[in-house]
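User: Can you help me understand a structure? I only have the sequence.
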Amino acid sequence: MSRGPGNLQRKILSLLLGGAAIAFSSFSPKRYFQTVHALDKEFEKLSKKHLTESINALYGNKMISYREQGGVAEIVLNDFGKTQALSYELEKIKISKPAKWDKKWRIVIFDIPHALKKKRDILRFRLKHLGFVQLQRSVFVFPYECLKELTFIIEFYSLRKFVRYIVAEHIDSGLDLKKHFGLF
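Assistant: Let's start by predicting it. Here is the structure, written out as tokens:
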């Protein structure tokens, strides 16, 4: 029975995912090289012994594969490894608080079928964890821009067709919400 990846393995998966993200992104050449340099520095921090042990464990858990082409060895992140890496990134999501509130509310509403109850419960948990306030069973509100973070979560759980995002200027319980979020 295999255990979940340890911290070093998680870091390796995240670094490999970062490399995959670069390959599929439209970074400017300058941004591309900055990112590659940052990834190289992270790999340099890892001890070779621990790195080898962790890579072997990831290979054993079928999160990565190894291949050689033209004398060059490659470590490839498999779909399962990508899912694991993304789930670690999911744990790190934080919504930035701007210096000044734009006086708009971000409302997330969803109607997720009973057959997907676990995903519905996970979405509620994630929204609460990010600081959203639950107005009704499937209605959550937050005062700051969060579309990017919300999109990541709903795409990760494949809930796009069940979730709506609304930006509003007024909510009748706005005073209570302002008090809750410390917006006075």
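Now, to help you interpret it: Residues 20-27 have pLDDT under 50 and may be disordered. The chain has two domains: 7-92, 105-181. Let me know which part you'd like to focus on.
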